[in-house]
Amino acid sequence: MINRRFAVSVSLLLLSSAAALAGTSPYATTVILNGKVITADSDDIDDISFHEAIAIREDEIIAVGDNADIQKYIADWTEVVDAKGNTVLPGLVDTHNHLYDTTLTFRWVVKSIPEVMQINLAADSEDALLEQMTAALKVRASQIGAGQWIQARINPPAVAVPMLGTSVTRQLLDDLAPDHPIVAYTRGGSVYNTAAIASIERRYRNPIPKDFWIDVDKGLSGDQTDGTRCSRVDIIVPESNRLDEYTRGYLEVLQLNAQTGVTTFKSHFQCEGGFNATVHLDRNDLMPIRMAWGHRWMQPFNPWISETYWRVGDWTGYGSEHMWSIGSSAGALDNGGVGWCTSIPAKTDELKARERCPTMDSSPPNVRRLEHLKTLAELAAAGRQTGIPGFHVAGDAAVDAYLDAMLNSGVSLEKLRSLRLQVDHCHSVTREQIEMAARINMAFSCDATRVPSQVIEDAYGEEYLTMNAPVASMLKAGARAVISEFGSQSEIRHSPFEDGVMWMTRKIDGKNFGVPEEAVPDRLTLLLMMTRWGAYAIWKDDKIGSIEPGKWADIIILNGDYMDVEVEKLDTLRPIMTMVGGEVIFEDAELRGNQLKFNTDPTVEAWEVQMTTPTSLWRWKDGPPQIPSREL
Predict the structure, then answer these.
(1) How many domains does one find in the chain?
(2) 297 pLDDT exceeds 90?
(3) 290 occurs within a structural domain
(4) Residue 599 is assigned to a structural domain of this protein
(5) Are 50 and 89 in contact (CB under 8 A)?
(6) Is 298 part of a structural domain of the chain?
(7) Alpha carbon of 359 to those of 182, 190, 333, 367: distances in Å?
(8) Measured distance CA(481)–CA(473) in Å, rounded
(9) Closest CA to 587 of 196, 55, 81
(10) What's the CA gap between 492 and 578, in Å, rounded?
């Protein structure tokens, strides 16, 4: 008689062997054929490999090669996608944006959450802008109930900044609408009325720290992001009982970015509400794209921020496949807009006086953030912080303050190189800073915008345009340069390469964007800046950023040939399919007759789901994603 225990053991061995064989099946679940695959598999553009086809098993790429190579991975149950000769790229990585907040600027989202509507005003003179603002605030106050917030963005900064604390004061806003929390702001500062201060202190359960203010009696702060963003996300949305509408709008904006080819993005969470909404989507397996996040929501309005950072712990790398931490940061070291922080002389004393530096007593919010940065640097030196992600810098003196804080903290050069440091924006950078960035392995996350060049021309002089986003110099020096804000952040983008044209021509609307000598030299380098190099900056270079076996199947198929179209027409290229982890998040009818998208046309503003060609790859298999309520 066969020993029963032996028989059971043999049976278990056979079962486990069968399971192991099944787990290492030589076949693919999905194959992409007939493509022009640009793998981005090397930092050297001369070594990047080009192929025709890709084999994918579940969420992972298992092979790349020509059609004949990949056809051997096809079983009778493998789904084959014909790329029809179009370019196939790695999913794009946007290394800096604020989607959790800018969600609240999109038309259809504001329609569903009217309480977050901003008043946007602009005029060429202070008198005209003040007249506009006064009239608009009175009208808005008459339209909404007592206690509801009013946010007024006044532009341009060159006109608006001198008004803050002079003609626009806490008392003026109190007089205009005493029953409403009001903030008037621009890139360079903000003014709050008494009701707004009370609302913030009620929400965060402590007095607003003294170093948030330049002059509390005037309601004047040098901050223009923490207060405005967090009052929207942390106060207005929940107090209006709009958590579900906000979360749905956020998902739709993430989907919109997938439709632009962005499969991963990086942001820092200033506001708890943005973090909570993202966690809710991730917990319910509803994140359309991946997010790398830096921790910051314990900073705004917290008088004990340094003590908090000492206790927050090291979260770098922790999370899920769709949402992971890349460490803690401390926010802007200047004010952006016209409130830069530079070492260069301005044309007049008045123009220089607009600057806001972390070394100036006149800019306490920036001084405060520099102290927070020093705390993080001390933690890194003590081995208690692994990642210190992006810091906003607009101006070379702000970059110097950042570098000095890191270099004077006692962190070794080897440790600095391991932190994957990144500064957000590169509006004004010196050659010496580029050389130091190369030494310490620091990345510049650069965005294409005409505004910094205009600030330099108007306030400092055209001779300083060479400092505006000098990406060619960065690349030559061996410094890391990546591209950000090319997705749909506060406007609807139709091509991920709209900014690419700007980077390669150094022109925006026919005007100089920096200088021509600092153009991105070629389209393959541009691609690396939008894929492979961005993946390193957000701690996932082993999983995303290129099309290679062992990496996640984050892939986009374009509507044309990336290598053939003229540089000036790169912005005619757009995705017709976006995959994240082997699942199709977006599909355009041009590829297979299928439509899976969120349509932002003002006459539609809804999901379009139409399956003409049967497929099992769609992420949203049962129609538009259904989000469990957060308000139950």
Answers:
(1) 3
(2) no
(3) no
(4) yes
(5) no
(6) no
(7) 29, 20, 9, 6
(8) 10
(9) 81
(10) 17
- 481-528 residue pLDDT tens: 999 999 999 899 999 999 999 999 999 999 989 999 999 999 999 999
* Residues forming a β-bridge with 445: 424, 482
Same domain as 403, residue 353:
yes
What is d(CA 281, CA 494) in angstroms, rounded to the nearest whole number? 25
Confidence grade of residue 224 (pLDDT, cut at 50, 70, 90): confident
**49 with 123, same domain?**
no
Task: Look at residue 451 and tell me if it is in a domain.
Answer: yes
Residue 180 sits at φ, ψ, to 5 deg, of -130, 135
| Same-domain status, 409 and 506 | yes
Owning domain of residue 487: 331-521
Q: Which residues of 100-133 are buried (b: 16+ CB within 10 A; e: fewer)?
A: bbbbbbbeebbebbebbbbbebebeebeebbebb
Q: How far is CA 90 from the centre of its chain?
A: 18
330 — pLDDT class (breaks 50, 70, 90): confident
- Mean pLDDT of all residues in 463-469: 98
593 vs 599: CA distance, rounded Å: 16
Rounded CA separation 324/328 (Å)? 12
Going through 276-329 in order, the beta strands assigned E by DSSP cover: 290-295, 323-328
Query: Each residue of 82-133: pLDDT tens digit?
Result: 999 999 999 999 999 999 999 999 999 999 999 999 999 999 999 999 999 9
Contact 165/218 with Cβ under 8 angstroms?
Answer: yes
Helix-then-strand count for the chain, H and E: 24, 27
Contacts (Cβ under 8 Å, ≥6 apart) of 437: 443, 444, 474, 477, 479, 480
How, if at all, do strands 507-508 and 555-558 pair?
unpaired
Decide if pLDDT at 14 tops 70. Answer: no
Same domain membership, residue 85 and residue 132:
no
- Taking the C-alpha atoms of residue 181 and residue 116, their distance in angstroms, rounded to an integer, is 13
Provide mean pLDDT across the span 442-469: 96
- The full length of the chain comes to 632
Rounded-to-integer distance, Cα 615 and Cα 63, Å: 21
Q: What are the structure tokens assigned to 81, written together?
A: 């996608």
Q: pTM of this prediction?
A: 0.94
Helix (H, G, I), strand (E, B) or coil at 233: helix
Lowest mean pLDDT among 7-11, 209-213, 349-353, 448-452: 7-11
Dihedral class, residue 355 (left if φ above 0, else alpha if ψ from -120 to 50, else beta): beta
Give residue for tokens 């008494």.
194
